[in-house]
TrEMBL record:
InterPro entries: BRCT_dom, BRCT_dom_sf, DnaQ, Ribonucl_H, RNaseH-like_sf, RNaseH_sf, TerD
Name of this chain's protein: 3'-5' exonuclease
Native species: Rhodococcus opacus (Nocardia opaca)
Ranges where the BRCT domain occurs: 213-286
Cited PANTHER family: DNA POLYMERASE III SUBUNIT EPSILON, PROTEIN NEN2
Amino acid sequence: MARPVRLPTGHRWVVVDVETSGLRSSTHRVLSVAALALHEDGSVERELVTLLNPGCDPGPVHIHNLTAQRLAGAPRFEEVAKDLLELLDGRTLVAHNASFDYGFLDAEVRRAGMTMPTRQRLCTLALSRRLEIDVPNHKLSTLAAHWKVRQNRAHDAYDDALVLTEVFAHSASLAESLRLPLPVVGCADRRAVYPDRVPRVESPWRNPGRLDPGVGLVQGMKLVISGSTDIPRLALAARLTDAGLDVMNSVSRQTSVVVCNDPHSSSAKVRRAVADGIPVLTERQLGKLLLHVTPGEPKAAAAPSEVQQPRPATTIVPTKPWHGRRVLIVGGSHSDSVLMRSRIVQLGAKPSVNLSAGVTDVLVLDGGELDPRMDRVSARQLPLLTAADVNSALEPAAPPEPGAPLEPIRPPSQWVAPLLARGEVIDLPPQTASLTVNASWRAHTEDDAFDVDVVALLLGEDGRVGCDEDFLFYNSPTSSDGTVELSCDGSSEQGVRIELAALHSDYQCVSVSAAIGGDRTFGELGPISVTVDAPDHTIASFVLDAGTTERTMHFAEIYRRAGRWRLRAVGQGYEYDLATLATEYGVTVDD
């Protein structure tokens, strides 16, 4: 394989790819791993490539083609763990969606009774987003095609690792030419390891409320299990689900009963149940009630007028004069920059938060000529604009003089999505089964990075969480059923993945927000670029830059209305912290 560029100095890189039996590192296993330790010229110094026998069902064979028969003679993870950890030691891990690969390796290493030596990682997905190259999506196959890297066997760990090495080299070289810091993050983050949670199963019955001992169990009641159980927890949960009961993972005001075998338990679930007057039963007491469960009331079907009707696909025809252009603003005061960004949006252009590969123009305000990026702007021969250029472009165009040459039309990016204004609402395309809300801000060096946490709140009809687990943050990044998950592992790029087609009907809205740690504010952070991406293309984008002294901000809402999913660009900030934001939506925050 040709290595046309050198890798960035300052790190010893190891490119890693894993194939797995599923998406959750706590319950699924690694089926194959490829780790390529690289020289500075991108050539492979050492490598470890092997299939692994997981001792379980291999999962989606149609994706990775790793059948149980192929894996039967492979080594167990613990048999290769020592060699793998020696290869990883002292190196920065590179992977496409690095939090996924690192999380699976870390889980396997913990099962083997060992500790991951990796201290830093870089996500090429985050790097690609930061560069804003002109592609419809940031899948590895798409990036390989963009960089003209040959891909022989997609979802083969070794081939993917070889392809990723080339993609990383090209991407890192482009980042260096733009003087964009690489999205290197620490692996010793705040994420904790939690026990398996009960999978959420859609209940067809309405919740009848709290348990009445005179009536007994009624289908649709919400039950929570706390502590150890005689029957294995997942088996007990399955039995309750089969009886028509709705098994939850944490206590809320909607909980009907809590099951706990220890009458003196001081668990948070039992404490909250006692405080709220929710009945607490032992497993034995529950077993007696399960002998007779009263039929529940079915949930009402949506009225015909509320059922989403398929709509014909429409093509958005650009009518604004600067449609498809990306404009970077340098210099100027906060208020001047906010004003100019709003006018750029009016013209149909997208304000850029970084000097990326997608920038087409640079707007220079007072003092902007001193911006350290201006030498890169000159090297790339980017057109320079003034505030007067923006203002004049907003004025009605005068008819050209007879015989005057026409202004050349600048071709827009091939992959331009609708640009929303703050507060604007659109219907999502009816065929949208999944999407990711991605937020990014100006990239800073590793020693000056902002501590920003993107979070998600899964809200019911009353605009509040049903239970604490409906609040997803750095220490609890995935919903109990896996339909909503924090994603994109970068120092200035984070996101929330939402499986709309599988989202439980209790959830009427997914609110995507963020908080800044320490004493810093969104005014210091600067504009936030938000894109809402389907797997293959961007649905819409918007830029939020109204922040001043706020420490938390709502970015976007994905919500149901009349049987349809809608998107709202929010941009509402508050001066309080993340804990206060959570409690405003009904989350119980421990001191």
